[in-house]
Amino acid sequence: MAPKQQAVALSSDVFRGLVENQDELTAFLELFGDLVCVVRDGRVVFINRGGARLLGAPQTHLVGRPVTDFLAAPYADLAADGFSAVLDECASVPVCLRGIEGQSIEVELTVRPFSFAGSAVIVTARDVTTRLRAAEAMVRSEARFRRVIDLAL
Description:
- By secondary structure, this protein is an alpha+beta fold.
- It has seven helices and five strands; from the N terminus they run H-H-E-E-H-H-H-H-E-E-E-H.
């Protein structure tokens, strides 16, 4: 077996072992600062600390709730069909989440099948609110600058 194939086989074996040990898998998923959650039958069955922090509630308050509780109105339909529209995408999609107190959170969402948990999906979300606000501020600043230049000419 070629070295690259051995590395892939080894990492696959390591991951399989990790998944078989729920405590180790949980510890691994807790390393991520972004939201990582497992959704089965439309309900959150696991969410990491980063996800709980993003949504503004303790993990115990989020597990068991319908995932639609955390999707802003235009995006709730994504979960209705098991995220199939997003599963077909190969990249992150922009979505607006709703925090526990109703606050809007702009994120890049990815969804992948999670066969180790039955018919579940694993959802990851990275908060891009700050990045979007900075981009909007730059556009406003550029528009002001152009007005000043236009007035000066």
